[in-house]
Each structure stands twice: as C-alpha cells, then as structure tokens.
Structure to design on (194 residues):
C-alpha cells in the first residue's frame, strides 16, 4: 500500500512537472508572437511616418538648403526601408503584403531623392525622369498604400493580446490550484490582468 501511495505521488509530481513545462513553452511561444507583432507594428508606424517627413523636408530644402533639413531627410530616407523590412517579417499577413507592395515604390523614391539632392532647385518632384514616377507621385502612392491598406496596427496588437489572454486562461484553468492558478479566484485574477 505504501508503494502504491509513493507511486501515486511520484506520478502526480511527473504530471505536474509536465504541465509546468507545457505552460512555460506555451507562454514563451505567445510572448515571442507578441514581440513579433510589436516589431511589425513599429515598422509599420515608422514606414507611415517616413514619407510625410520626406515630403516636408524636400519642401524645406527647395526653399533653403540647410544641414538640419538634410539630416532629417536622410534619417527618414533610412527609416522607410527599415520600417518596411520590419513589417515584412512577422506573423500578421497584412503588413507583410503591404511591405512587399511598398518596397519597389520606396526604392524608386530613394533614387528620386538622390536625383533631387544633386540639384535641389530642379523640378524633379514635378516631372518624370527615365520612366520613373515623379517623387511626389511616389510619396502619394506610398502614403496611400501604407495608410489605406487595411493593415491596422492597433487591430493586430489587439488580436495578438486576445490570443495571449486565451492562452493564459487555458493555462490557468488546466493547472491545479496551488501549483498553477486553477482556482476560480486565480482565473479571475488572470482575466482581470488582461
């Protein structure tokens, strides 16, 4: 009888250990997914902001060529492809698709900016060169694509947080009282946190 009791306790310890490992792995996956969506959102916001800054600084540089405006233009010029790269790597398919569509436009815009910087008083923003779209048209197309794509960063984050909440609830329900947080009080506390 004592052996049976010891075997039962040992089995319970092994089962609880397995449950703990399962919950840790599941939680880690959810945290990684949340982090990945955060990177996509950061990239999307960066990519949305860059064309506006580029347009503003190009207009300033057309009036007066200053080092401060050039620095801001170059910074926005670097942030656009970086933001698109961040959008392209992640679980959410909408930002990945938008980034793929925006990448060629960003490359053309980069070339147009370089042509503009060789002669900032020229009308490179108003005419087409060598079959490329004018810079202003590229900026407008990028802004439209990035803003009107249906890829909503807040919704992406909300969906991922909802998934994390569901996972936390499942872990709380499955894990027994003192070892996990399976008591109804613990489940309510977990739900309240999310």
């Amino acid at each position: 009888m004592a052996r049976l009791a010891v075997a039962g306790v040992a089995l319970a310890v092994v089962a609880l250990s397995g449950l703990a490992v399962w919950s840790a792995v599941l939680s880690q996956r959810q945290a990684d997914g949340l982090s990945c969506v955060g990177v996509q959102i950061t990239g999307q916001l960066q990519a949305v902001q860059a064309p506006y800054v580029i347009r503003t600084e190009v207009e300033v540089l057309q009036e007066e060529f200053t080092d401060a405006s050039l620095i801001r233009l170059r910074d926005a010029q670097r942030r656009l492809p970086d933001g698109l790269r961040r959008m392209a790597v992640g679980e959410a398919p909408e930002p990945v698709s938008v980034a793929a569509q925006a990448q060629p436009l960003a490359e053309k815009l980069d070339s147009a900016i370089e042509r503009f910087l060789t002669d900032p008083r020229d009308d490179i923003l108003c005419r087409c060169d060598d079959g490329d779209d004018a810079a202003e048209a590229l900026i407008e197309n990028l802004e439209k694509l990035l803003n009107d794509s249906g890829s909503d960063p807040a919704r992406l984050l909300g969906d991922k947080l909802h998934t994390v909440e569901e996972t936390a609830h499942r872990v709380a329900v499955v894990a027994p009282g003192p070892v996990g947080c399976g008591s109804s009080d613990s489940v309510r506390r977990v739900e309240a946190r999310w």
Q: What stands out?
A: The domain at 32-151 is CATH 1.20.120.1730 (Four Helix Bundle (Hemerythrin (Met), subunit A)). The CA atoms of residues 23 and 171 lie 6 Å apart.
